[in-house]
Amino acid sequence: MTQYLVSIDLGTTNTVLAYAAPGSGKVELFEIEQLVAPGEVAGAALLPSARYHPAEGELAAGELQLPWPQSDAAGLERVAVGRLARTLGAQVPGRMVASAKSWLSHPGVDRMAPILPWGAEADVTKVSPVAASASYLGHLRSAWNARFPKHPLERQQIVLTIPASFDEGARALTLEAARMAGLPSLRLVEEPQAAFYDWLYRHRATLAAELAQTRLVLVADVGGGTTDFSLIKVELENNEPKLTRIGVGNHLILGGDNMDLALAHLAEQRLGRGDGKLSAARLAQLTQRCRVAKEELLAADAPPQATITLLGSGSRLIGGSRSMTLEREELQRIVVDGFFPLNSEREAAKRARGGIVEFGLPYASDPAITRHLVSFLQQHAAAAREALGLADDGNLPIPDTLLLNGGVFRAAALAQRLAEVLGAWRGAPLRVLHNQDPDVAVARGGVAYALARQGQAPAIGGGSPRSYYLLLDGERGPADVRQTQRAICILPRGTEPGREVRLTERSFALRLGRPVRFHIVSVTADAGRAPQAGELAELDSADFVRLPPISTVLRDSGDAAARKEIPVQLEAALSEVGTLEVHCVASETAQRWLLEFQLRQQDADDASDSADSGGDGDIPPPPRFNEALEKIDRIFGSRAQQVDSKEVRQLRTALENLLGSRERWETPLLRRLFDALLQRAKGRRRSAEHERVWLNLSGYCLRPGFGYTLDEWRIEQLWALFETGVQSHKDSQVCAEWWTLWRRVCGGLNAEAQLRLLDDFAFNLQADEHERGRRPIPLVNGSEEDMLRLGASLERIPSAYKAEIGNWMVQQLPAPDANDAKAEARTDAVYTRYLWALGRVGARQPFHGSAHDAAPTATVEEWLHTILALDWRKVEPAGFAAAHLARMTGDRLRDINDELRAEILRRLSAAGAPPGWPAMVREVVQLDQASEKRMLGEALPPGLKLLA
User: Fold this and answer.
1) For residue 323, which of 54, 600, 613, 628 sits 20 to 30 Å off, Cα-Cα?
2) Are 556 and 588 in contact (CB under 8 A)?
């Protein structure tokens, strides 16, 4: 059966489908049937990328009915997708999912977890960014199959467009969304390239004449959520243009959404009546209304002003509404000058600690697109000069031709401004290629790309826009410190899709049956010629993008239990789908193992927070390390040795005599010691002393449970011991060390394991005598202090559980008694324990958990009011706890209200708090070492740094 050529632009703001019928070269837009009002269906070329989750009884039965059977990819029975979703979302706050595409590239959260709508109330069903994206694709599939029942969409030749700057993680998640939508087979094409394909196809008959004076085309694609730049070189061969992509930009969450948000911040200030900031849900509602006003005032026939109205909530929906007027000149100053400044000095993008941060998304810290453009052109200066035929005179090379794409450039003022800026930098006007319709050009261009693959349209060459490297050194310091790292090129820039590149000159030793971890980075910055496969390079950490880690256990297909070491070579390719594939190939047997990226949030943490990514073998152990192993083996080894209890108790001291003070043991050494202890775990059961020492050292050497090569594997091995409990269950010190171990490493435990710990936490603190008589045998006793420290460290449990735990902790705080000095003194220890735990449970910025699991802000504000009733000069932990509960994140969902923040700052000042405490309340900062150590309960290993 001949296939349709189908292209889908899964946009941040709108989703579009274009196609060409079998045997036809005509590119058509698919009219997507969707709900436009309750019970009313109509077709449109644009499907707003939005979902609305109605409340029970909000819409009557049948008002969400579509012309096909309902089947939401996210699993909800009642949901509106498309235009009706956007309409309802502008009226009712907190129920609309928008900008799901931006979340796909946000490694700070679990993108497979149900977190959207961000900031929604507990009664609103949430979906993951991947599931939301799948629902838009699923809607297209259903609409297409209803119209072309004999040609199901899943059986056609499909192209799905993505931002050029999407890393391998975001690409893999996009493919997962397509699979969830029932579209398992498709090809990824980058959006700027697709936009240029559309222009090429529309001018294919006169292409040579159209590009006769062009040497370098800049494609600037600014959509709702992202900004993408690409450079395409034009050469004449046999009087026909030869097109080669020579550069793509890094990922920028910067686009129309940021402009809408800037306007919403202005509107919020003007609409305010002294009742503080809007909730995250109501700000999202106001942002949608600002988007409408922006589009109205930037239109060709724009009125001099527009009205922005924020409806009231609840029973005051109409009577509580507020309005403001936005002048056209004011909007142009904010949007045109703010996001597209003239930048005559050609300044690069500014690196700042924080920018506009809302709805949990890490927007670009510098909103000036023209400064980001300078950074991009600087990265690719050498290739641009070569394309333009310019000598290296130190000046920034400016392309001679510009193609604008993305919904932002529907506004003529913005299109004209960018062309004006580039012309001023160049000293002469650029040629601006006409984009017929920026909203649909990418979808149309995807079809043109498919036609080009069949030889029916002009094609763009260039292969992979990035070079990929395997890091050899890993990170030798904090990830936020600029550093140089050794790496080996595994796939050079320019490699064509489908071509496999094997590093035949480089062999690696691989141990089967043991975990192995690879860290791969991509580089778009241009330092001249493209590297060769297998070439060693020194990479500046500011120039590469770290991909999600690859962590796996490789096994022999003929002997799954084999643990032998074999020589292997790496083989990489840019797949036909458009993603990076890496294989390990056995040198002797040619057995192949596909290495797959890990995409859940914990793995992203491991990648970004790693103190060393190169593997234990990269760093030599201390000179007396083997003697230390002999000490461990003497105590816990399989061969029975006559060891008295004193020698067991003094093992830590013996290790420090050999290796130095344990506070100075760096992460590679700590993990080596843990591995030695884990291999000898059975020896811990020889006596209570053995068990105490093993638990203490193991937890210390594996803390905080993540952040170093193969920690996830180590945690899996350790967790397998949990259900067996302890042998010396009547020894209180053994029980205390047991819970200290799990508190130290719980950052590496997943949500399921942390919930299991929560069960024991609750039992130990709340079970009555009758229940304790029926306690499970493996359940280990825990003191109040042990349980408080453990429970406070469970950052991956749901926020509702944190609220419950925190409320219980607040109830345990003794009431202040100014008339009884002795009673007040007796409560100091209680305050210290419970206020520390409360500050950790309600922390606005988690250490290892996901932001969406933070304790509810309203609940945390109640805790702060309780803490404010204490005398902070006498109860020192009160200020420390309050500082963490009020810590600034920049995310409106998690941040406390401004009035309460001001009061916390006033009280911290009056109590003479250390400077770091008010600093974290006033602005977005990293914790100082003292605060971090106090909050975690102990210092992190040297060289390991947790990043917010």
Assistant:
1) 54
2) no
Give the per-residue pLDDT at 606: 39
Q: What is the mean pLDDT of the chain?
A: 85
Cβ–Cβ under 8 Å, residues 34 and 139: yes
Amino acid type, 192: P
Tens of pLDDT, residue by residue over 751-796, are 999 999 999 998 888 877 667 666 666 788 899 899 999 999 999 9
> Measured between alpha carbons, how far is residue 137 from residues 83, 236, 637 in Å?
15, 40, 57
- Residue 355 pLDDT class (50, 70, 90 cuts): very low
pTM above 0.85, yes or no: no
Summarised one tens digit per residue, pLDDT across range 296-316 is 999 888 899 999 988 765 544
Q: How is 855-877 classified by DSSP, letter by letter?
A: PPHHHHHHHHHHHHTS-TTT-HH
- Residue 945: what pLDDT? 46
CA 448 remoteness from chain centre:
32
Whether the pLDDT of residue 362 is over 70: the answer is: no
Q: Could you tell me the CA-to-CA distances from 850 to 228, 357, 846 in Å, in that order?
A: 28, 16, 7
| CB neighbours of residue 201 within 10 Å | 21
Omega of the bond prior to 117 within 30 degrees of 0, cis? yes
Sign of the CA dihedral with 520 first, then 521, 523, and 527 last: negative
Cβ atoms of residues 231 and 358 within 8 Å: no
Residue 810's φ and ψ, nearest 5 degrees, are -60, -35
The tokens describing 738, both together, are 């047991």
Residue with tokens 């050999």: 658
**Rounded Cα gap, residues 802 and 853, in angstroms:** 9
In this structure, the chain runs to a length of 948
DSSP code, position 396: P
